[in-house]
Amino acid sequence: MPRKPRVQSRHSRSGTGSTASPSGASGSTPRRAGPARRSEPPIFWQCQSCGAPVEPQFGTGIDSWCPSCQAVGTVAGMEGQYPSPPLYGAWAARQARRKEQEQTQAELTDLVQLHHSLTKQEQIMKRTKTHTGTFHCPTCFSEVELVNEESLKCDKCKGPLAQGSLDEIWADDDDEED
User: Fold this and answer.
1) Are 154 and 142 in contact (CB under 8 A)?
2) Can you give the pTM of this predicted structure?
3) Closest by CA position to 105, among listed 113, 32, 35
């Protein structure tokens, strides 16, 4: 059976006895022998009560505490995956739903505050009263029909206008005389 050829590093010493490396540094650093170490798979810790992922600093097993639901003794771990993926999925869905509800609540609060501030501004702004109907001037005995008019002053004598027509006023005077 033939022997396997001996594998040497590319950076091994040359046969000339020189200690200079190709990079120009004096001496060469020996390489580690043996296979490369594989990293161990990570351990995922999860609360078995609510499904939340838990950091190992909160303990494991009986001596554990879940910061999400404050349950004691419910943290378990597993290499490479969560111990209960469906439970984690339900927890993640609840977190997403809660975040969406908080965002919606914040938007509604902003809208209510905006509406409230607009109504306050509308209350502060006063509008002048307008008058519509038949009015008469008791000074110059003229009758005027007004439509959304702000001023109740007679155009002729600048006196105040009274509500009602002259016919109504004269009819009242006739009733009082009887």
Assistant:
1) yes
2) 0.42
3) 113
